[in-house]
Design a protein that fits this description.
75% helix; 279 residues; DNA-binding; mainly alpha; 0% strand; homodimer; Arc Repressor Mutant, subunit A; Tetracycline Repressor, domain 2
Chain lengths: 279, 279
DNA sequence: TTGACAAATGACCGATTAGTCATTAGTATA
DNA sequence: TATACTAATGACTAATCGGTCATTTGTCAA
């Protein structure tokens, strides 16, 4: 659906300029060259629009990192360098959305929004930790969680440079600089603050499983969007399984693994695992 | 004026919970146990309230750092440790306001708000750079601006721990951990990314001098608030100098230096220097 | 008790918002 | 061409907002 993408693009520009609250649906529709009614044909509400933006951007970042770490075939320093470069390029390309995040950070809109951001944050943590393990091995077991926070801190602070200055920056130099810093901290740091226990404490108490209704709604939304045929088939099958309540866990598990491959389905895969109590 | 403080406290709690936009004046007055009209006796607008909050807390943080770096009498590692500890305690004590900042970050409200935040940010940069000079001397001239960004990054990332977890954290351990990290980066880092030139580019083009009207308004506000007698006298004298247009620069310079001692007057001292074109 | 003044109130205003829905325009089929 | 259907419209609503101001309340000295 091309209309949806048009709205998302134009809305993103406005959100980056003015913030979410300060941007009216009217402005979005004017900039998109459509009527107000047409907006509500694509999105049920203004909130649904920002959810879509977050899903789109975050799932892309997470799957980019995942791909690098799991299947990139890079080694040690090269991996770290490519990691930073990938993240930075992502920020550069989507600096508009990054601006929205900076501005709106956990803006108390909705419990689902908070859960989503928390979920993607955990995915990123998982991927970075995996990378740290690959690069440094067991030697930094005591400080790896602290290093995780430093890496995220580097990303956070330097990404501000993109957002507040629109200057063209030398990403390769920046990535090299961050690689050096990360290595220094990894190899010589002896006083960790963030421990495994603290990270576990920070993982908010899990919400209960989603209702059947919300799950089906999400799946239907995805079926309308997803391109890949076999993913769409798996989604249909999953919907049937939910409605039939058969609980064929092996089949469901396989289907979830299939849809999980598609970045767009990341969040719904998470909800499905919650719903069916998989691992 | 005690009413003003009551409003500021209650508003701060609400802003931290819901954000600035999402909090109505109605809610603030209800929580404060006053009427809507009474609110507008203390503040001319909702914007003026958030300006007051920012001025109040940012000037406190800046003067705390300034005091440490300029007159604390600490040396090297001890100075760095006290610096982190002071900042962290400030965040802990005012975690509500820190939350508001995280949420509202440059929320496009008003040109004056942006200028204020930028001004305080520059004050903090100045103080940190002075500290870096004291501790490391000329040896890190090439990487000091990069180190500045790392220090600010550490503060940023770990302060999130306060804000999103309400856990009691071991600030002394955290400060020690950050001292070690800072020293590592200062002593071994060789690939800087942030240079003096880049920092200068990031300093937004300065606004023109304030009008006589706005200046007098700010001074009057401060006269009503400031406790210290001699500061109040200096403010009165400054107001007279402005109205008389005498331009006795030496006298004015001295008066500005006097009021600058008071943390509350930091911003107006900045405006005065702009107005009278001092240094 | 009275009168004068300041402090405080809350009903009210115009502006703006997200969201709705009766209506129209456009398009494909018979 | 007539019919049936979807896509698209924008005037409209109900709610909420920041801010105002005629009115009431409280507090003094006389």
């Amino acid at each position: 659906m091309v209309k949806k993408q048009l709205i998302m693009e134009k809305a993103l520009e406005l959100f980056a300029e003015q913030g979410f609250d300060a941007t009216s649906v009217q402005q979005i529709t004017e900039k998109s060259g459509i009527s107000k009614g047409a907006f509500y044909l694509s999105f049920k509400s203004k909130d649904e629009l920002i959810f879509a933006l977050i899903d789109h951007f975050m799932s892309e970042i997470v799957s980019n990192i995942d791909y690098l770490v799991s299947g990139g075939g890079y080694q040690k320093d090269e991996l770290l360098y490519q990691f930073y470069l990938t993240i930075l390029k992502n920020f550069e390309e989507h600096s508009n959305l990054a601006t929205v995040f900076m501005k709106e950070q956990t803006h108390t809109l909705n419990m689902e929004l908070i859960m989503k951001l928390h979920f993607y944050d955990k995915q990123i943590n998982r991927a970075i930790l995996k990378m740290i393990d690959q690069i440094y091995g067991d030697s930094i077991a005591a400080t790896k969680f602290d290093l995780l926070y430093c890496v995220k801190g580097f990303m956070k602070m330097y990404s501000e440079l993109f957002i507040f200055s629109k200057l063209p920056l030398d990403l390769k130099l920046l990535a090299s600089s961050l690689v050096e810093k990360t290595n220094l901290l990894a190899k010589h740091s002896t006083v960790p603050f963030v421990t495994k226990e603290l990270v576990n404490l920070l993982d908010l108490p899990a919400e209960g499983p989603p209702t059947q209704e919300t799950l089906v709604k999400h799946i239907n939304d995805l079926i309308a969007e997803v391109q890949e045929g076999f993913v769409k088939d798996a989604l249909h099958e999953l919907k049937e399984q939910i409605n039939k309540q058969t609980l064929d866990i092996l089949l469901i598990n396989g289907l979830v693994e299939i849809v999980r491959q598609d970045a767009q389905c990341m969040w719904v895969a998470f909800l499905l695992r919650r719903y069916f109590k998989i691992s």
